[in-house]
Amino acid sequence: MRRSRLSAILAAAILALSGLATGTAEAANLLANPGFEAGSLSGWTCANATTVSSPTHAGGYALAGTPVGADYAQCSQTVAVQPNTTYSVSAWVRGNPVYLGITGGPSTWSGNSGAYNQLSLTFTTGNQTSAQLYLHGWYGAGTYYADDVVLDGPGGNTPGTPAAPGTPQITSATTNSIALSWGASAGTVTGYRVYEGSTVVATTTGTSATIGGLTACTTHSYSVAAYNGAGESPKSAAATGSTSGCVDTGLPKHALVGYLHASFANGSGYVRMADVPAAWDIIDLAFGEPTSVTSGDIRFNRCPATECPNVESDADFTAAIKAKQAQGKKVLISIGGQNGQVQLTTTAARDKFVSSVSAIIDKYGLNGLDVDFEGHSLSLNAGDTDFRNPTTPVIVNLISALKSLKAKYGSGFVLTMAPETFFVQVGYQFYGGTSGGDARTGAYLPVIHALRDSLTVLHVQDYNSGPVMGLDNSYHNMGGAEFHIAMTDMLKAGFTVANTGQFFPGLRPDQIAIGLPAAVSAGNGYTSPADVQTAVNCLVKGSGCGSYTLRGGTSPALRGLMTWSINWDKYYNWEFQNSHEPFLNSLP
Q1: Which of 532, 526, 579, 576 is nearest to 558 (CA)?
Q2: CB of 514 closer than 8 Å to CB of 462
Q3: 430 to each of 257, 435, 487, how far by Cα in Å?
Q4: Confidence band (pLDDT; 50, 70, 90) for 139?
């Protein structure tokens, strides 16, 4: 977050991630009711769709989907597959346009509206054991039709087992339980198993369950599989929910977070701590940096008078921090930034990180820590493919260090993170330890996951980013409302991590804020206040979402907005603060 930032996604480099040695599939259609000849949508999960007797490609029935409002009438089916295997997909479609694809994988479309034509593609599994095929139309484009859909290849479950159940919905939560329900499976069903990861946490003959014995303020992700005498169905897509009972952090429901150039001026001028307006609820001191990349020894050097002529004394700086805290504000030390590469390659570096960061916190009486690792601070070693159980030393040691700091300072310790999209959302397509591409893709995911129950706010930087694929399997570009909607929805809904077959559970809405540049000089991807507020209204209220459909539902408790930086905002006459503080305060 200093003068420029990592330009995240170069298409040619990313495409290199997709080359894998694969097996060859034997032809066998894995889909249930592939030609809709049941005269119903049995086996499919659909919105705004039905079966019709005309027009069909063959047989007596076809699928008809009609996009309504912000919904594009998607129909999908999840099937069991084998890892590292190539599958072929096809469908006969009619309409303008019609899309055929694999969630998290390739897609294709047709604009031929007058007659049935065949779409086809191939995809290759990674370590996954299930795949979701989808068909959908487009907003305002009228009804589309599909028939004779094929997903060819070896199945991953025993013939005769039920189809996958519908995606579960969280219906309620207490301090120690989460209740959920789901759509029934097609076929003969004896019962349902509710999974958290690979562990069965409930078994029931109905289509609802309550998972008890949970810890307060923890996040859980559940999928459901049906079973009968022949075996078990593929698992449904996952749903994420959180128990109640979180510790009050002392933050307002919707907060304004800003970085303060405390160790440099950066062309925007130095702002004294005492002169930071009361609008800012979290103030991140930028930056603590290491004495060397691998030392773990973090130092916070205040801006020298030669660069910042109006810099205050240490005593006045500390007194101003105390005054902010008396107003209920939180002041954190932010570690890293553009120039502060931190690689905790050894346990000695880990321990030095903990002791040196503690010394900074104690010296100034700070409320906590912001992790702003960029560049090459975090990457994944080859073969490190499970974000839930990382093995790369720089990841493992950082997690251990942050847990130690949290344990030392207790429940009131404020922990925030400011990764770039490259390290988080790009993990939906590419995960660094799984191939020979850029090892940094998705590298923050194991850190976020390990600290999810200690994390106060995650504010991913929605700027200095290339196009990023969202949960709608479309690429989104920074600078407009839809980018912030799509990127934030991924954090709330969760997502499958690239070709690993593993699901990254979403975060609680109160843990999520949107990261933005305060002005055009602060970073690429400046978004006008009107567009920012359009995005927030969509995420919080579900209104004004345009063509995007929220996969994670609305987030009335969305924490707020982060900006780089308070200094740049002052330089541009406080546009960010003056636009967004009253807006955040007006939200329910």
Answers
A1: 532
A2: yes
A3: 30, 9, 15
A4: confident
Confirm whether 374 is a catalytic residue. yes
For tokens 């590292």, name the residue. 84
- Rounded distance between C-alpha atoms, residue 588 and residue 571, angstroms: 31
Query: Where residue 70 falls among pLDDT bands split at 50, 70, 90?
Result: low
Q: What is the SS3 assignment for 531?
A: helix
Give tens-digit pLDDT for 191-231.
Answer: 999 999 888 999 999 999 999 999 999 999 899 999 998 88
- Phi-psi label, residue 140: left if phi above 0, alpha if psi -120 to 50, beta otherwise: left
Which residues lie below 8 Å from residue 386, measured CB to CB, with a gap of 6+?
500, 502
Three-class HEC string of 259-326 = EEECCCCCCCCCCCHHHCCCCCCEEEEEEEEECCCCCCCEECCCCCCCCCCCCCCHHHHHHHHHHHHH
Tokens 């509206």 identify what position? Answer: 113
Tell me the C-alpha distance between 27 and 152, whole Å. 5
Asked whether the beta carbons of 360 and 298 are under 8 A apart, the reply is yes
**pLDDT for the residue 566:** 98
Percentage of the chain exceeding pLDDT 90: 73
Catalytic residue among 232, 289, 312, 374: 374
Contacts 24+ apart (CB under 8 A), 574-579: 574/277, 575/518, 575/519, 575/529, 576/516, 576/518, 576/519, 576/529, 577/256, 577/258, 577/277, 577/279, 577/280, 579/529, 579/532, 579/533
* Helical (H) or strand (E) element with 65: strand 62-65
Helix (H, G, I), strand (E, B) or coil at 38: coil
Nearest to 45 by CA among 57, 33, 53: 33
Each residue of 12-24: pLDDT tens digit?
333 333 333 333 3
- How high is the pLDDT of residue 129? 75
Measure the CA–CA gap between 377 and 77, rounded to whole angstroms. Answer: 39
What pairs with residue 428 in β-bridges? none
pLDDT in tens, 311-351: 999 999 999 999 999 999 999 999 998 888 999 999 999 99
For CA atoms 270, 272, 273, 278, give the dihedral sign.
negative
Which of 476, 496, 495, 494 minimizes the C-alpha distance to 486? 476
**What tokens appear for 227 in the block?**
């079973």
